[in-house]
Amino acid sequence: MKQARLNIPAGSKVAFQGELGSFSHRASIKIFGSKNESIHCTSFEEVFEAVARKRAELAVIPIENTLAGSIYKNFDLLAHHSLEVIAETSLRVEHSLIVHKGIQLRRIKNIYSHPVALEQCTSLLRRLRGVEKNSYYDTAGSVKFIRDHGLKEAAAIASEEAARIYGMTVLKRGIEDDPENYTRFLALARRKRFSRGGEKTSIVFGLRNEAGILFKALSVFALRNIDLTKIESRPIRGTPWEYLFYLDLQIDVRSKECIHALRHLRELAPYLKVLGSYPVF
Amino acid sequence: MKQARLNIPAGSKVAFQGELGSFSHRASIKIFGSKNESIHCTSFEEVFEAVARKRAELAVIPIENTLAGSIYKNFDLLAHHSLEVIAETSLRVEHSLIVHKGIQLRRIKNIYSHPVALEQCTSLLRRLRGVEKNSYYDTAGSVKFIRDHGLKEAAAIASEEAARIYGMTVLKRGIEDDPENYTRFLALARRKRFSRGGEKTSIVFGLRNEAGILFKALSVFALRNIDLTKIESRPIRGTPWEYLFYLDLQIDVRSKECIHALRHLRELAPYLKVLGSYPVF
User: Fold this and answer.
1) What are phi and psi of A25, to 5 degrees?
2) What is the 3-state secondary structure (H, E, C) of A238-264?
3) Which residue from A239, A277, A217 is spatially nearest to A87, judged by alpha carbons?
4) Number of inter-chain CB pairs under 8 A, A vs B
5) Three-class SS of residue B221?
6) In chain B, whose CA is at the least distance from the CA of A243?
7) Nearest residue of B to residue A210 by CA position?
């Protein structure tokens, strides 16, 4: 049976974008448990840098949301940096409207949250006429912000957990437009810190520029019955209209099929990097 | 020989995001010529709505940039609306630093532009210490903004063309970090207004959820030597971890190979829509 979470030394430093109570923080607890030190970052670049420059041992980043789609910035950063993906998890994203204690809905003049969260609650926001929307870099951070500044006529959109952490009040629960709202997160570490392997493998590669080449690249997996759970493409800087492809494969990188498939792919792909092979929590 | 541009009645209304002199406006002139009426929109939703609700006959939208990647919002809108792609073009994106006449670099305290343009000029912006960056919805619009408000200590980042249109001065040319900066644009119309056909065909489809299905979908083109120039995937709302796939094919939809390939694809794809088949200018 698989362990409930990844074994790491107690007190490890985990970097993520946002404050305590952010969705990345919750994903971090799900993967690593809660006996760690949080390193709060304000951007994804900063999260990657924190691990690369050893300010943190580990990081957790969101990679995809079922409504908003891929978090493209993090795909670019995965190719650019040489960190290793060591685990994956996903969370149901439920948003709450959070205020100071005793504040009623009609007093609210401003709403703060991450732009994606604001966009995921449009049906509520449309009903609140005359209320101003304000972008903030983090959902939980927006709760902390209205608390620290004593903004009584403001509300924040974040998880219930964030309300609890910052001692604020949940005015409305489940305010997201669409309940099928999940975010997938990856845990990262510097290379060779963790043994490679698990039910999923993520790779990134660049192909020779010839007709049908992507089809050939996918054939190396299809021919070996290796299931593809995700494909993403991003532009290659300096080479207009050429792309890096990112694949998530439902297989352990140590399996014979995967070893053969990747050797086969190298014949077609001048650039190939295994981003990691990891368990899913 | 292909005509230089698409034939449309003089005085047609063309919707695009941004002001005169924006890159979308320049793409519109390249595809349709300059004897049209511009319908300026502040968002891509508004551009699609303008054509769908007959405020405009035509639209031009950016779909992909060689540095920033796909403009995902417009992929989503293409699937959501039932407009037809009737032409494609691409433009080299060159940015200029634009100011009021007689203003020198050291007087500038604020820079306005579209966030993507600001990100594409980071090496210049990093050298200008203490200058504040301000996001604006459009490059050319930011030139108009600093002119209309008489902001003498501000500069805008936009095309030279925008400086000319608004009677402003180019302080520096070619300020983008990477000269391999191109944007691809699509022209749109309501369905059946233009005869379908041209060197490219764009489609969007959803697949049954089974192992190796994307490989099979791509095989319908590879088996017929139809070249794929772009693949994009976006989440399907309400169905977590399933995707719509967008393909650009280097073929005329009226060709026998394409007709066979699409019939073959329908066996695998419960949802399939031809977004258009069109000439490239």
Assistant:
1) -65, -45
2) CCCCCEEEEEEECCCCCCHHHHHHHHH
3) A277
4) 88
5) helix
6) B230
7) B227
- How do B132-135 and B69-70 pair as beta strands? unpaired
Helices and strands (DSSP H and E) totals, chain A: 9, 15
The residue in chain B having the minimum alpha-carbon distance to the alpha carbon of residue A92 is: B240
Place of tokens 């433009």: B91
Determine whether the interchain pair B180/A240 forms a contact, defined as Cβ–Cβ distance below 8 Å: yes
Structure tokens at A104: 């009623």
B146 near B156, Cβ under 8 Å? yes
CB contact under 8 A, A72 and B67: no
Distance CA A120, CA B71 (A): 19
Q: Which of A252, A229, A274 is nearest to A64 (CA)?
A: A229
Q: At A64, is the secondary structure helix, strand, or coil?
A: strand
The partner residue sitting opposite B211, judged by closest CB among A225, A239, A241, is A225
* Per-residue pLDDT tens digits for A137-195: 899 999 999 999 999 999 999 999 999 999 999 999 999 999 899 999 999 999 998 88
Global pTM value = 0.91
Q: Is A211 exposed, middle or buried (0-12, 13-18, 19+ CB in 10 A)?
A: middle
Cα gap B187→B189, rounded to integer Å:
7
> Active-site positions of A?
183, 185
CB contact under 8 A, B214 and A225: no
* Catalytic annotation, pick one of B89, B139, B183, B201: B183
Question: What span, in angstroms and rounded, lies between the C-alpha atoms of B223 and B230?
Answer: 17
Q: Are B100 and B145 in contact (CB under 8 A)?
A: no
CA distances from B158 to A149, A192, B23, B89 (A): 37, 45, 9, 19
Record: contact A212-B229, CB cut-off 8 A? no
Res. B75 pLDDT band, cuts 50 70 90? very high
Residue B15 pairs in a beta bridge with B39, B59
CA of B68 vs chain A CAs: smallest distance (Å):
7
ipTM associated with this complex? 0.89
* Contact: B225, A212; criterion CB under 8 Å: yes
pLDDT tens per residue, range A71-109: 999 999 999 999 999 999 999 999 999 999 999 999 999
Q: Which residues of A touch B228 (CB under 8 A)?
A: 212, 214-215
Q: What are φ and ψ of residue B147, in 5° steps?
A: -70, -55
Model confidence pLDDT, tens digit, residues B22-66: 999 999 999 999 999 999 999 999 999 999 999 999 999 999 999
From the candidates B23, B44, B75, B185, give the one annotated as an active-site residue. Answer: B185
Give whole-number Cα distances, A178 to A90, A105, A174, B205, in Å: 17, 22, 9, 22
- Contact present, A83 and A59 (Cβ < 8 Å): yes
Query: Can you read off the two tokens belonging to residue B211?
Result: 């192992």
| Separation between Cα atoms, residue B161 and residue B89, nearest integer Å | 18
